[in-house]
Amino acid sequence: MDSLVNVLTENMSSILSRESVVFIISMMPVLELRGGLLAASLLDVAYLKALMICIIGNLLPIPFVLFFIEKIVLLMEKFGPTKKIAMWLRKKVEKNQAAIEKYDFWGLTLFVGIPLPGTGAWTGSLVAGLLHMPRRKSVPAILTGILMASVIMSVVSYGILGNII
């Protein structure tokens, strides 16, 4: 992920403002808030400003994913070229279904909040949408997960831990 953030940061920073680069990277699947904070630290964006930009950028696509993912996946399953992707998405959901359903709100929160490959707000929204989790439960869980990820990634990206130790 670091190398992808580096490439995107280098290429976009010549045509966009530093803040715009951070915002766009924060909205991207896979990179999300984690990538946005890494980009912000590379571009020397002030921490609090970067944190707000990343949280907003990471939150912006979530309602669309929650509301439309089921319809998109169903549509993808009908076409040969996208059927494999749709099946992969369904398998991803099935793989995480037991843990998320077992721990409910906190399962989804931890899934979104612990910055590991294949987790995050996009994937959490995908899982919540395809599992038909009530939005009144999934939206706060995803928001809490994003806040948790922002704390963890702040420590990593801005070296707060290094300054404390």
Shape: globular
Strand content: under 5%
Coarse structural class:
mainly alpha
Helical segment tally? 9
| SSE order | HHHHHHHHH
User: Mean of the pLDDT scores?
Assistant: 89
**Structural Rg:** 16 Å
In whole angstroms, the N-to-C terminal distance is 26 Å
Task: Quickly count the domains.
Answer: 2
Strand segment tally: 0
Catalogue the unreliable spans: none
Oligomer: single chain
**Helix content range:** over 70%
Main sheet record: none
Give structural notes:
The protein has helices spanning 2-12, 18-27, 32-42, 47-59, 62-77, 80-113, 121-130, 135-157, 160-164. The two termini are 26 Å apart. It has 165 residues and is mainly alpha-helical. The model has no long low-confidence stretch (mean pLDDT 89). It folds into two domains: 2-59, no CATH class; 62-153, no CATH class. It contains nine helices and no strands.
Chain-wise SSE layout:
Elements: H1 2-12, H2 18-27, H3 32-42, H4 47-59, H5 62-77, H6 80-113, H7 121-130, H8 135-157, H9 160-164
Helix pairs in contact: 1-3, 2-3, 2-4, 3-4, 3-8, 4-8, 5-6, 5-7, 6-7, 6-8, 7-8
Summarize this structure as a short list of keywords or feature phrases.
165 residues; 81% helix; mainly alpha
Offer a concise description of the structure.
With 165 residues, the protein is mostly helical. The protein has helices spanning 2-12, 18-27, 32-42, 47-59, 62-77, 80-113, 121-130, 135-157, 160-164.
